[in-house]
Amino acid sequence: MQDQHTPPSERARVRRAADRGHYDAATIQAIVDDAWLCHVAFACPDVLCLPTACWRVGDRLYIHGSNGSRMMKHLASGAPACVAITHLDGLVMARSAFSHSMNFRSVVIHGHFTEVSDEAKPTVLAALMEHIAQGRAKDSRPPDANELKATTVLGISLHEAAAKIRNWGPKDKDEDLALPFWAGVLPLRQQQLPAISESGFEGPLPAYAQSWSVQQAHAG
Amino acid sequence: MQDQHTPPSERARVRRAADRGHYDAATIQAIVDDAWLCHVAFACPDVLCLPTACWRVGDRLYIHGSNGSRMMKHLASGAPACVAITHLDGLVMARSAFSHSMNFRSVVIHGHFTEVSDEAKPTVLAALMEHIAQGRAKDSRPPDANELKATTVLGISLHEAAAKIRNWGPKDKDEDLALPFWAGVLPLRQQQLPAISESGFEGPLPAYAQSWSVQQAHAG
User: Fold this and answer.
1) Could you tell me the fold of the domain covering A18-171+183-188?
2) Gap between the Cα atoms of B198 and A20, Å rounded
């Protein structure tokens, strides 16, 4: 079990503003669970950075895509990958331009993906449905054999990962504190707006759609 | 001038769901301008994907950091890079698990960064202040000579880039349309919450802080 202050590897060590680094599973998992998408970097052979949906089961992060996808094919081969998840929580306004910053929560994961077996695929994909909305796995048509066959699901360990968090106000240099400029935070969060039903839908919304715009579980 | 439908290069061509690809500057710039951060991928030699602040001036995207930063040093050498910006606008709930999707606006940029000259640096950094909040460049202490010297500013052309947009409801297979499951969109946006002043601040908020939580210019 990784403690909060010890990086799991040299390449996972937070370099800049190292006091913002966290390496414990609880911190990493909480940031991952607040995300519906990640950015995946790999070299194929040009270095690429692509957004894709993500979700967590246990100590692994999962992504999925069509078997034909360049990214899926490349990553399924075990190629080195780096995955980043970032939540922007605010713009930090210091009195000096130089001391401006951002409040954020990020996770950077190093390693490589492995393919989820045909046997495990339905369970791991059901977890994606549940990550999207609790109860959705049973409130949708599950994938049939052809759909499962057409989908590659890849997982990467969260062991070699680092979280980085900044969640405080501006830190001006002492000599700037008396300057006559406003200092503070302009906060941001991911807002959940009321669910929009497809035209023709009648009847009550399912619980997860009803509560969507009021629960604000994410980045709240 | 790139038209909407023609990729600027083979590696910039959108592969999956190619009908969602856009290559014109107006579409790319609008997505970039809605972002305060991007993810930058590079190989150093391990492939890395790191979040960092970004802003646009003309047809270039800029990032900045300490001269000592591994990322800044590596990218300043002209190493190949790929930059991604993604706004998540909603979770798209189809009747079948397989047809679930996300509404999003993304830009992926290919190329390499070049360093901004000492002469141009103050102007490019002032543009970052203005991107954070209109009027902030003049309502903060500008960087002094030492601060400018300690900061590397890098720019990358937006020419070799692709935007990808999905902004519509679920598209179920015909045979799934009558299934008794809710279908629709769970919308998301980046919300601007009321400005938080540093303790001790008295007097009226500057205009950009007053209007922050009501203007909702971003992803609105």
Assistant:
1) Pnp Oxidase; Chain A (2.30.110)
2) 21
Q: How far is A140 from chain B (nearest CA, A)?
A: 5
What ipTM goes with this model? 0.95
Asked if the B18-171+191-215 domain carries CATH number 3.40.50.720, the reply is: no
Spell out which residues of chain B touch residue A163, defining contact as CB-CB under 8 Å. none
pLDDT for B16: 87
Low-confidence ranges of chain A (pLDDT < 70): 1, 215-220
Q: Nearest residue on chain B to A105, judged by CA atoms?
A: B51
Higher pLDDT, A130 or B203: A130
Cross-chain Cβ contact A96/B140 below 8 Å: yes
Q: What is the 3-state secondary structure (H, E, C) of chain B?
A: CCCCCCCCCCCCCCCCCHHHEECCHHHHHHHHHCCCEEEEEEECCCEEEEEEECEEECCEEEEEEECCCHHHHHHHCCCEEEEEEEEEEEEEECCEHHHCEEEEEEEEEEEECEECCCCCHHHHHHHHHHHHCCCCCCCCECCCHHHHHHEEEEEEECCCEEEEEECCCCCCCHHHCCCCCCCEEEEEEEEECCCEECCCCCCCCCHHHHCHHHHCCCCC
A&B contacts, CB < 8 Å? 245
Asked if the Cβ–Cβ distance from B182 to A196 is below 8 Å, we say: no
CA distance A142 to chain B (A): 5
pLDDT recorded at residue A53: 98
Among B53, B187, B195, select the one facing A186 at the smallest CB separation: B195
Residues of A in contact with B142 (CB under 8 A): 97
What average pLDDT does this structure show over B45-67?
Answer: 98
Interface test with B, best of A140, A147, A168, A176 (most B CBs within 10 A): A140
How confident is the model over B97-129, as pLDDT tens digits?
999 999 999 999 999 999 999 999 999 999 999
